[in-house]
Design a protein that fits this description.
By secondary structure, the chain is mainly α. The chain has a domain of 48 residues. It is built from four helices and no strands. Helix 1 packs across helix 2.
């Protein structure tokens, strides 16, 4: 499946994997993907995320970082 991703999408998955490792997580979660999207400022997904909210990309990154460090249990 990885071979069906665009180069940019593969890059985001690699960044997400790095984010998961940074937080000592043994899974790749949506919080890691969102952090990776924010790290790749050339990505269309990043532009969409930052235009859908009133908070800055930096603040969004900080909030996601907090969520990644202290994940909430699923309900």
């Amino acid at each position: 499946m990885f071979d069906k991703l665009s180069d940019q999408a593969r890059h985001v998955v690699v960044l997400a994997s790095d984010a998961a490792r940074t937080h000592h997580h043994n899974h790749l979660g949506t919080e890691h993907l969102l952090l990776a999207l924010l790290a790749d400022t050339t990505c269309t997904g990043t532009r969409i995320l930052t235009h859908l909210t009133t908070i800055s990309p930096h603040e969004m990154h900080d909030r996601l970082q907090e969520l990644a460090e202290h994940p909430q249990p699923h309900e």
